[in-house]
Design a protein that fits this description.
The protein is an all-beta fold and 184 residues long. Strand 17 and strand 18 form a beta hairpin.
């Protein structure tokens, strides 16, 4: 599917195969996808159901809500929060105008990064996952409910260390709120 519009939203059911959806003037809603999915909008929110492939979601004017993501996730917004209900692959999410909430239930092969300038970051991890954590919050503290093997010094605004046996990098940044890492 290749759908483009400059004056309205895009709404689909479940898509099979690769899809590119782009609009300048509305929201994008996708019931789900089995292939690679690219969704870009300048003027609305993005809502994507369960997928098995990689997802690229970008908007300048709204929130991003992603259900169960089977592949890697790239999510960017300047005007809202980002919520990833469950990810089975790595996540690269950043926003300038809201909070980020994400859940990782399986060990990703690659590095993950969650960064916000205007809110907090909350990350839930399934047991048995392994990461090298690098978390820093300028506008609030960093808190972990999981055991972290600290490397170097630690303060209220930064936490660096190993989760489990260590593994891919897990970079968490917040300028406008706190960071919390918790178990499922």
């Amino acid at each position: 599917v290749d759908a483009r519009t400059s004056g309205g939203g895009i709404k689909t059911g479940r898509l099979s195969g690769n899809a590119t959806l782009k609009t300048s003037g509305g929201s994008i809603h996708v019931g789900g996808a089995t292939g690679e999915l690219i969704a870009h909008t300048s003027g609305g929110s993005i809502d994507i159901g369960d997928t098995t492939g990689s997802v690229e979601a970008k908007t300048s004017g709204g929130e991003i809500t992603l259900a169960r993501m089977g592949g890697t996730v790239l999510a960017r917004t300047s005007g809202g929060g980002i919520r990833v209900e469950d990810a089975l692959g790595s996540i690269d999410a950043s926003t300038s105008g809201g909070s980020i909430s994400a859940r990782l239930s399986r060990q990703p092969a690659g590095d993950s990064r969650l960064s916000t300038s205007g809110g907090s970051v909350t990350l839930s991890l399934a047991s048995g996952l392994n990461f090298d954590l690098d978390a820093h919050a300028s506008g609030g503290g960093v808190r972990s409910d999981l055991p972290i093997l600290v490397q170097g010094t630690q303060d209220d605004d930064s936490l660096r260390g190993r989760i489990g046996a260590g593994g891919p990098k897990l970079v968490l940044r917040s300028s406008g709120g706190g960071i919390r890492v918790r178990g499922l």
